[in-house]
Amino acid sequence: MLLIALQPGLLSCMAFVLCALTGFILLVRPPHTVRYGHRLLGTAYVLLALCFGLGLFFMAHPQEADHRWYKIPHILWLIYLPMPYLYVRYLYDAKPVGWKDLVHLLPLLVFLIDYLPYFIQGHGIRPTDPMGWSRVKAMIPIWGGWIFPDNFHVPATCLTMALYWIMQVHTLVLYTEQQQPRFPGYTRWLVIYTTLQVPVFIPALLTQITQKPSVWASVVPPATMSILTCITLIMYPRILYGTATAPLVREPSSNPKPSFSDDHIESINREMARVMQEKKPYLDGDYSLQQLADELSMPPHKLSAFINNVNGSNFNDYLNQQRIAYCLDMIASNQTDHLNINGLASLCGFNNRNTFSIAFKKMTGVSPSEYLRSRQKGA
Predict the structure, then answer these.
(1) Pick from 5, 37, 25, 77: nearest CA to 189
(2) What is the CATH architecture assignment of 262-378?
(3) Are 67 and 142 in contact (CB under 8 A)?
(4) pLDDT of 239-277, one tens digit each?
(5) Where are the domains positioned within the chain?
(6) Cβ–Cβ contacts within 10 Å for residue 244, how many?
(7) What does the pLDDT look like over 314-326, one tens digit per residue?
(8) Are the beta carbons of 31 and 242 closer than 8 angstroms?
(9) SS3 254
(10) Which fold has domain 2-240?
C-alpha cells in the first residue's frame, strides 16, 4: 500500500484535487479580518493545483503536449515560491505586496530570458514515447537554455526555495516573539506549514548534487507537502474560514465583568499615569500586566477589563502608546540623534525593531524612518 501511495501519478491527482479545493475556499470565502492573507495563501494553492494538473495532463496525453508546455509548471512554481513567505510576512506585520516586492519575480525573469529562444521557436518537438512519467524524464536532456548551462535552473530553483524558507522561518520567529501576535490562533498552523516545506527542496537538491535526476524526487515531495498542508488546514477550520482571530488574552469567564464608577475610573487613571510618569516601567521590555496590577493593588483580570473597556485598548497597546510617547519626547529633545532605529527601539522598551516600527506607525501614521527624515528636512 505504501508503494502505491508513493506513485507520482496518484499523489499528483490527490494534490491537484486538495489544492484546487483549498485554494477555491481561501479565495472565494476570505474573511474580512485576514482577507489579504487568505488571498495570498489561496493563490499559492491554486498555483500548486495548476502545476499538478499540468503534470497529470502530460502523463495522460504524452503525444499531444508540445515540449514547450513542459516549462509552464516551472514558471508556475517560480511564481509560487515567494507566496508562503509573503503570507507569513503579512500575518506578522500586515505588510501587503508592494512595488518593492517585484524583486521576487527576478528568478522568473531570469528563467524566461534564458528560455526565450526556446519559447518562440516553431513547431514543438513531440517525442513518441507513450509512457507517462518516462516521457517527462526523456524531456530533461533538452531543457537547456541559451545563457546558463544545462541543468542550471533546477538546483537554482531549489536554492531559491531554501532561501525563501529561511526568510519565512525568520519572520515566523519574529511573529511568535510578538508580545501580542495579530492572529494568535495561527501560530501552530504556521509552524506546521513551514515545517512541511522542508522535504520539498532538500530531496530535489540532493538529486542535483549527486547528479542523479529523479522524477520521484521532483514530484513526490511537493505533492506530499501539498496534501499534508491541505489536510492540516482542513483540520484547522477556524483558520480556513478565518475565525481564528480572537485576541490572545481573554478575560477569564469565571470572573464577572467589572463595572467602574466615574470616581473609580478617575482614580485608576490617575494612579496609572503616576506609575508611568514616575517609574517609567514601560521601558522594561518584559513588563507585564501582573506587575502593573501589583503596583495598583488590583486583580490582573480587573485591570485588563479596565484597560479594554474603559481605555478602549489592550495592555500591550497601552504600554506601546507610553513607549512611543516617550520616544517622541526624546526625539524632540534631540537626545536620540546618535541612535539608529534599533537603538531607538531598545531605548523605548521594545524587544525588536519590527514591533517598534509597527507601534510607531500605528500611533503616528508614519514609520520611524519617515518621521526622522521629515524632521531633518524641517530642520
Answers:
(1) 37
(2) Orthogonal Bundle (1.10)
(3) yes
(4) 777 654 443 334 344 444 556 677 788 888 889 989 999
(5) 2-240, 262-378
(6) 20
(7) 888 889 989 999 9
(8) yes
(9) coil
(10) Rhopdopsin 7-helix transmembrane proteins (1.20.1070)
Looking at residue 87, its amino acid is Y
Whether 174 and 92 have beta carbons less than 8 Å apart is answered as yes
Residue 224 has, within 13 A of its CA and on its CB side, a CA count of 19
pTM (two decimals): 0.61
H helices present in the chain, as ranges = 2-5, 8-28, 35-60, 72-80, 83-93, 106-114, 116-120, 132-139, 153-177, 187-195, 198-209, 215-234, 237-240, 262-279, 289-296, 300-309, 315-332, 341-347, 353-364, 368-378
Torsion of the alpha carbons at 55, 61, 67 and 71, rounded to the nearest 10: -20
- Collapsing DSSP to helix, strand or coil, 179 comes out as coil
Q: Please give the distance of CA 256 from its chain centroid, rounded to a whole number.
A: 38
Handedness of CA 294, 314, 310, 365 (dihedral sign): positive
Q: Which of 268, 140, 117 lies closest to 214 in space, CA to CA?
A: 140
Surface-to-core class of residue 120, CB atoms within 10 Å of its CB (0-12 exposed, 13-18 middle, 19+ buried): exposed
